[in-house]
């Protein structure tokens, strides 16, 4: 099995690739500008916005793990080009050169409506307004309509392995005026690997699957865990299910997180 991974040097890809290699997966990393891939990974030079370059990248692969995405930038045109147009270009290349390949797309809990009456479920109708989740949902729909063998994983808040993501939370809390009682579904990098290895076996084919640990955790607790502070509040929480996902489907498919809570990650020095 040869697996093409996009976003190989990103927050998720840089931590997933070594775990895939350790699991015995033959990995090919899509890289721009002639950069070398991580140890044990072959690199192929290509760009998601250059459709011709993708043809060679996908030649002969058994699966694609599409992680590449643009997130925190005010440039909405770049977000849409990278996340939606880039995904469409990759889909077209796979259909042309490796139509039997399994295509696994990484997505986000941010697609769910903030004012939902329950934890976000894969079957929910979603209509995100911000560029990042809207572009990811558009990419999901393009893949679902492609005729390829697909699966989609919607991640909770990704953290761990010294990625610095959780440590950014105190700044994000201040910028977005988040309520301290808001709970977020979380997922450690180790369990992104758990989920991806499952998907490579076909266990998630044709499904959208929420991927998160067992304990959605409050913003207040998370900020304290990384040594930050925020003002407490007993004001009513207007959107109690925002950023909180229902993970029952993943559990029914056999997904069990290795890092079950962020407190376990802290205790075992996995932050």
UniProtKB/TrEMBL annotation:
Region feature Disordered, mapped onto this chain: 112-131
Domain of life: Bacteria
Pfam family, one: Epimerase
Record field: transmembrane: none
InterPro entries on file: Epimerase_deHydtase, Lipid_A_modif_metabolic_enz, NAD(P)-bd_dom_sf
Extent of Basic and acidic residues compositional bias: 115-124
Domain NAD-dependent epimerase/dehydratase: 3-212
Protein name per its UniProtKB record: Nucleoside-diphosphate-sugar epimerase
Taxonomic lineage: Bacteria, Pseudomonadati, Pseudomonadota, Alphaproteobacteria, Hyphomicrobiales
